[in-house]
């Protein structure tokens, strides 16, 4: 079973539902033995992280920090850790986007979680074109699966 650690630094969300969604998402992705850290912060902290790691002096809704699991042990490559990495979600952005999208906060948090995890797995919509379409298709597929299993997840239309 996946090891998921959810921390709410914003003081505004319930961790257990997000942890359940993350665990099921990793199962659906065939990563049931993976470790994932999810941290929910406010816009102020998200702005600091976005500036430090991406050079963008503004908050964003989700950031992903992939774990570099490659290393050497006794001269052979190995996975140093089964950790996928960290997903950081802005509670403030999630609240705004849920309101603007017409869905619940839980749906938006799970959408952002899904988006962040796909980034950890190498998907990158910012490359545009086919890569953006591929990521969107995977988001749609996985959000539908989560919804079918009773886990709320917003579905963003490709625009």
Short descriptors:
single chain, 159 residues, Collagenase (Catalytic Domain), two-stranded antiparallel ribbon
Please give a structural write-up.
By secondary structure, the chain is α/β, with parallel strands linked by helices. It has one domain: Metalloproteases ("zincins"), catalytic domain (Collagenase (Catalytic Domain)). The strands form 2 sheets. Strands 1-2-6-3 form a 4-stranded mixed β-sheet. It has a two-stranded antiparallel ribbon with strand order 4-5. Helix 1 packs across helix 4. The longest helix has 20 residues.
* Beta-strand fraction estimate: 15-25%
Total discrete domains = 1
Could you name the CATH topology? Collagenase (Catalytic Domain)
Question: Major beta sheet, specifics?
Answer: 4 strands, mixed
Kindly name the structural category: alpha/beta
Q: What average pLDDT do the residues reach? A: 89
Helix content: 40-55%
Order of helices and strands: EHEHEEEEHHH
CATH class category name? Alpha Beta
Quick gist of this model?
The chain is an alpha/beta fold and 159 residues long. It contains five helices and six strands, in the order βαβαββββααα. It is 46% helix and 21% strand.
Q: What are the SSEs and their pairings?
A:
Layout: E1 3-8, H1 15-28, E2 35-41, H2 43-54, E3 62-66, E4 70-73, E5 76-79, E6 83-90, H3 91-101, H4 105-120, H5 129-148
Parallel strand pairs: 1-2, 2-6
Antiparallel strand pairs: 3-6, 4-5
């Amino acid at each position: 079973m996946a090891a998921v650690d959810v921390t709410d630094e914003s003081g505004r969300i319930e961790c257990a539902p997000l942890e359940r969604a993350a665990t099921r998402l990793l199962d659906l992705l065939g990563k049931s033995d993976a470790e994932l850290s999810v941290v929910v912060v406010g816009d102020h902290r998200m702005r600091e992280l976005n500036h430090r790691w991406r050079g963008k002096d503004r908050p964003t809704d989700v950031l992903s920090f992939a774990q570099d699991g490659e290393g050497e042990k006794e001269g052979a490559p190995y996975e140093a850790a089964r950790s996928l990495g960290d997903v950081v979600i802005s509670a403030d952005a999630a609240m705004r986007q849920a309101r603007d999208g017409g869905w619940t906060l839980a749906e938006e948090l799970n959408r952002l979680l899904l988006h962040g995890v796909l980034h950890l797995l190498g998907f990158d919509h910012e490359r545009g074109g086919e890569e953006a379409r591929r990521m969107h298709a995977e988001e749609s597929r996985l959000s539908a699966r989560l919804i079918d299993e009773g886990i709320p997840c917003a579905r963003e239309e490709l625009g």
